[in-house]
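Kindly inspect what follows.
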Amino acid sequence: MILLGWNCMGLGHPAAIPTLCELVRACRPDVIFLSEMLSHNNKIEEIRCRLGYECAFAVNSVDRSGAPISDHNPILVDTIPVFIVAKAKRFQFENKWLDEPDLNTVVTRSWTGFKDCELLHRLHATADVFQTWGKHIATAWKKNKKDLEDEIGSL
């Protein structure tokens, strides 16, 4: 079972409903829990129909007070265990990659190249692309460093 929880801070923001629709399309959750929606039952029913769910339960908003402070990022929980074979080295994004001119291209191609995959597989596949790309970048940096050291040594 896949659960999606989101403290959406009201559904009146123009991007809220499209974002929710995209999350549901991408993750296909069995259950959606939305909090701090600041909406009434009729709005919830409209959203339920738009997303294609069979039922909804809503508690009408009384006012805007008393809401807990949180980060408002969606949370996805998959109750089906996934077994992953541990790799020799864990993926780690290198901040120095941010200076590479082709970073955006690598990100876009790797992420969209696996768009039909489950989220966890997509993340691992994208990490593999980054590791391969990162090794090529590191090799180029080492060569450039050696060339500069040789140039300095010849001065």
Remarks:
- The helical segments are 16-27, 41-51, 103-113, 119-153.
- Residues 92 and 131 are 8 Å apart (CA to CA).
- The beta strands are 2-7, 31-35, 75-78.
- The longest strand covers residues 2-7.
